[in-house]
# Entry
Amino acid sequence: MTSIDLKGRLALVTGASRGIGRAMALELARAGAHVIATARTTGGLEELDDDIRTAGGTSTLVPLDLQSEDGIEQLGTIVAERWGKLDILLAAAGALGELTPAAQVKSKTWQSVVSVNLIAPARLIRALEAPLLASDAGRAVFISSGAARSRRPFWAPYAASKAGMDALVQSWAKEHDNNPLNVNIVYPGAMRTKMRAKAFPGEDPMSLPEPVALWPLVADLVDPAGETHGEIVDFADRKERA
# Structure
């Protein structure tokens, strides 16, 4: 596993109770970062905290629904007032919605998927840009999906919202070409997660890599010495070159 020293650094992870978010939160803590872990499920966060403590790390748990009216903004205020900076933002929360013909997608589904996959990242950027810029080497990583490019049938809400997030994040990245903040997007590909199982119920999950396999790639992107910026980094491409 990739070795990286993040002692003294502060990381905030959304979607930290399961899947990729949980795996990356645990690895960030193992690397020495203090992790602010957010998710809707308190039980999942508490289990993560137990694992982080067992690994010798530390965390602050923040139960948070990204669709709440002002929760993200309040979190940004807390980070700024309590810590004064944020070194790492890992935005891993996502919503699949329903896989159904675009003409049959209900308004409620559109609102929910777009809220989590696009509006929440926009609000995170607004709430956390100042603390990230207060770091000597701020790093922001957003977990997206190849669906943003493939735009396969029946995936309209997910594909559209992820494509929108890619545009949002890369536009924001260009605003920071000349300062120490690095901003990137990751396409994880097929991983052994509950979301993948929901999307492909007939697939053998044991044929897929566990989310922790993503850590070497993410570690490179959150490394204070790293230089990658404004990129969409595809795990499958990295794996083929390895």
The beta strands are 10-14, 34-39, 58-63, 88-91, 139-143, 182-187, 232-234.
